[in-house]
Amino acid sequence: MRLSLIIASAAVAFASAAPSAAADRIWQLGGQAFNVHLDDLNLGAASGRAQALARAEAAAVRLCRDAGVRAERRKCEADVVNQASALEGGDFLRTALAERAKSNVWLAQAK
């Protein structure tokens, strides 16, 4: 139940950002809010998307810090990022996740 609350809070706050404020994302859990600033990144480039993903994941870590044991926190973090990527305006996160998965497969095959 707590995990669902964390994910729902993050998703609602992420979705509530106005489209005109696409450069900044605000995630909120209870009384805590975390801004994810993206206006300095080129989301059209893979390196910019990777940095944006890293920032979103860092915010997810902070949002999920009280989610329980380590495995529950990691699942919470992944769920927050996945839900955020599914929202309108989260296409750069989906692309960054796919690019990272592709590079991980390539690295695994190279070993």
Provide a descriptive summary of the structure in words:
Helix content is 62%, strand content 11%. It is mainly alpha-helical and 111 residues long. It has one domain. A two-stranded antiparallel ribbon has the order 1-2. α2 (46-63) crosses α3 (70-86), α2 crosses α4 (91-110) and α3 (70-86) packs across α4 (91-110). It is globular, with a radius of gyration of 14 Å.
Radius of gyration: 14 Å
Straight-line distance between termini:
41 Å
H/E element sequence: HEEHHH
Strand order in space, largest sheet? 1-2
Please state the overall shape, judged from the principal axes of the Cα atoms.
Answer: globular
Structural class: mainly alpha
Segments where pLDDT lies below 50 for 5+ residues? Answer: 1-5, 14-22
Secondary structure: helix percent: 55-70%
**Amount of beta strand:** 5-15%
Number of helices: 4
